[in-house]
Amino acid sequence: MALADDIALLSQVPLFAGLAEDKLRLMAFGAERRRLVEGQTLFREGTSADCGFVVAYGAFQLTSTQRDGSTREEGMADAGTLLSELAMISAVERKYTAVAVEDSEVIRINRPLFRRMLEEYPDVAVLVDARIRENLSAMITQMRGLARRFA
């Protein structure tokens, strides 16, 4: 894919929506592309995460291992989905396994690249901070709704 295609894709990712094209261009230029064939694992649950991935095309089945050893389906990730966004900011562990369900391609955004964006462009840091806060707030609201079921 061309750089222009990567910029267009990144602009559709909710975390990056609203970023100026020049900033998206820098991110796209510094990112890496990775192709996977159907059945290939992108990453495994419990491994150290040093980057996020934007699904360029294809799809990934997301699964996690339960306490009893069984596997639980966590969902699907298709084009435009950002996987492991917190890994672009901080050292974290992968919370699930991602396996390509068809031939797929991802854009890998490593932590040093993303941190550089945050350091050099404070407006990007403010926008990302607001988006992460919104995501956490929505997750807390969902958890409160679930807590009522178990009370």
UniProtKB/TrEMBL annotation:
Gene3D superfamilies: Jelly Rolls
Superkingdom in the source lineage: Bacteria
Residues in Cyclic nucleotide-binding domain copies: 15-118
Record-linked SMART domains: cNMP
Protein's name according to its UniProt entry: Cyclic nucleotide-binding domain-containing protein
The organism of origin for this protein: Shinella kummerowiae
